[in-house]
Amino acid sequence: MEILNNWEQKSAERQKIYKKWFQTADKNKVLKQLPRLHEEAFSQIDCLSCANCCKNYSPRFKPPDIKRIAKYLKMRESELMDKYLRRDEDGDFVVVSKPCPFLGADNYCNIYEVRPSDCHRFPYTDEDILLKKQNITLKNSTFCPAVYYVLEKLM
After folding, report:
1. DSSP codes joined into one string, 17-42
2. Cβ atoms 121, 17 nearer than 8 A
3. CB–CB of 150/38 below 8 Å?
């Protein structure tokens, strides 16, 4: 689809425009459009051919995520944390390396059924997070074609 041609370069070039748009966007109008635009974006984009999120982004692993994943992997929580996680500057648990150690060579997630809630919700294009956490949205638009697509359609 035309809108996605060269999207990474276009997104990088449009960061200031997106920032300006956020300042004047009608929140209620945007929120009403998100579910439709989210569905539209994912009808055009195959996450498995991309996997940029898993290659560039570390979700937060919250205590319930750690417990669930450790059980799934038949490991102790402390073992999972020692092997795969570290604390970031905000005190959150994140993966120790990029790409995500749970990402397979085929771009499938080895823990998909029990993945962290951040992964399940990413890229937040159907949530108010898109508006509430604008810096995250802007960052995500540089490596996720779905975020770029939704921002372009909203503007």
Report:
1. HHHHHHHH--HHHHHHHHHHHHHHHH
2. no
3. yes
Task: Read off the pLDDT of residues 87-121 as tens digits, 9 standing for 90 and up.
Answer: 999 999 999 999 999 999 999 999 999 999 999 99
Q: Which residues, other chains included, contact 89 with Cβ-Cβ below 8 Å and sequence gap of 6+?
A: none
In terms of DSSP H, where are the helices of 45-76? 47-50, 52-56, 63-72
**Residue 88, C-beta contacts closer than 8 angstroms, at least 6 positions apart:** 58, 94
Task: Answer yes or no: are the C-beta atoms of 42 and 146 closer than 8 Å.
Answer: yes
Q: How far is CA 87 from CA 91, 104, 140, in A?
A: 5, 23, 21
* Contact criterion met (CB below 8 Å) for 107 and 54: yes
Given a cut of 90, is residue 5 above it in pLDDT? no
